[in-house]
Amino acid sequence: MDEFKLDRRLESDSDTVMQTGLCDLRLSKDARWPWLILVPRRTDVSEIFELTPLDQVLLTFETEMVASALKKITGATKINIGALGNIVRQLHVHVIARFEGDANWPNPVWGFGKAEPYTADKRDDLIEKLREALSS
Amino acid sequence: MDEFKLDRRLESDSDTVMQTGLCDLRLSKDARWPWLILVPRRTDVSEIFELTPLDQVLLTFETEMVASALKKITGATKINIGALGNIVRQLHVHVIARFEGDANWPNPVWGFGKAEPYTADKRDDLIEKLREALSS
């Protein structure tokens, strides 16, 4: 089996939060929304149905653990979950905290406007809170 | 437990395809993309993590069975899967066949332009193919 290698665009557009059982968990560099990305450490997979059934279950549980933590930490109105991959084909799942009246509410975040950078403090604080919530 | 009742907007914007173990499977009335919607027959659930772990697994397997069938039937470039719910809060999962150069490629389908109706023939043909693929 080839060694897992994170797609370059995913790597440049997000910061690492932690590793979960199956995935690399990353925070998008776009501060307009608290936006997480789970990347299963599997090679040559673009669609969830290409994962083994066990990996599909792991991905679901890890996605929902992350979604539930993000909801708790941010008090989001709604969590948006999506696996699109029209641009980056390496399988990845978005978990985004949405708020009534946010930058593109109620439409999706993908492809909308330009990313706004985090301040280092704000980013580190969010990553810290996520690590805490996900390790307890 | 309250009886499951399909959200009115989901009902008016889509046609029934079949029932799966957990979900009502429906076809969006928007012919711009082959677009399916899975609605778990559970009451008062907006987020996937509010389902029991078993229902989360069922939802994943049913979503991916549908995604895989849709890919086979349509020859799509990429399947897009999303659970947003910013407008309709009853939990539902979108499974959409995307093609390079389609109406909003590579951006998402949600909130883009206006739905285009199917001809009855084209809709019935797609539903028939889906039922066949999903019952074999």
UniProtKB/TrEMBL annotation, chains A, B:
One of its GO terms (molecular function) is catalytic activity. Residues 36-105 form the HIT domain. InterPro entries: HIT-like, HIT-like_sf, HIT_Hint. This is HIT domain-containing protein. It comes from Rhizobium mesoamericanum STM3625. The lineage of its organism: Bacteria, Pseudomonadati, Pseudomonadota, Alphaproteobacteria, Hyphomicrobiales.
